[in-house]
Each structure stands twice: as structure tokens, then as C-alpha cells.
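Tutorial handout. Part one gives the primary structure; part two gives the three-dimensional structure as C-alpha cells.
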Amino acid sequence: MTLLDRVRAVLPEKYRQFAKFLIVGGTTWIIDSGIFLLLSHTVLMSKPLTAKLIAVLVAMIINYVLNREWSFSQRGGRERHHEAMLFFLFNGIGLGLNLLPLGLSLYVFGLNTPEYTQQFVSISNFVAGNIIGTIIAMAFRYWAYKKWVFLDLSTAEQDGVVQDETPKAKPAGL
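Part two.
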């Protein structure tokens, strides 16, 4: 029995989607954090907010593909372009939530150089942008994905959201 089979046996069905969401999020968090650290310690050293924005945008695109094809593959009652538009709209809001702690750290609390050491500023930027901001944005995104982006097919059909591409034939004689 593989590790994946053991996890499936232990994890109830209703939590599997959330577990996939966390795995995708963890993967894209590593991508986001890696790009942020690379940019904020090289070409964008004096612009950590810009570095974080670029890192989140790259991770967001990868996140859409992985969530669409794996985490929420059993859901989806919308046409892809509509779903993608909603995904990126809610991720834009999530981006703001993600950047908020970093912006507060830099511009409200003044945690930047020369008042503090470069090491302290680097660590506080990482904690604010990559830990606190990510947790806040992750909670919002999971809620938004389930509620509006990747609809449950049964809910979508009840709400009339499902985009059926085949025209329905009208009953004869009515």
C-alpha cells in the first residue's frame, strides 16, 4: 500500500478536496516564496512590495492550473473563461489581503532599513508577506473558490449556472 493509498484510507472523503487545496497551496507557496526571496535579495532589493507582487502573480497562474485540474476537478459548472475570470478576480482580492501585512510592516510600523538591520528587515518581510499574508489570503481564497469559482455541479444546476453547450430541444406540441 502506497503512502497516498494510506492517506486516502484514513482521510474522510469530505476532507480530501481541502487536503488537495493545501498541497497545491503549499506547492505554489514554495514557488511564491522562492521568487520573492530571489527578487527581494537581488534586482528588487529596495522594492520588496514589487518583488512580492511579481512572486504572487506567477504563483497565482500556476495555482489556477493545479486547482482546476486537481483540487477542484470534480467541480465546475461554469464555462472555463468565466471560471478563470472569477478565479483571477478573487485572487486579486486575495493578493491585496496577502500584501496587506507586508505593507503594514513596511509603511505603518516602519520595519525597514536603516532603522533596523538588513537581516531583521528581511525576516520581518518574509514573516509578514509569506506567512501572515499567505494564511489570511488562503482562508479567503478557499472560501471564494468553493462559493463562487469552482461550483459544485449539483448546486450550479439548481442555480441555473451550468453552461450547457448543447441547445435544449423544445417539446413538441407545447
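Part three, for discussion. Confidence is low (pLDDT under 50) at residues 164-174. The radius of gyration is 20 Å.
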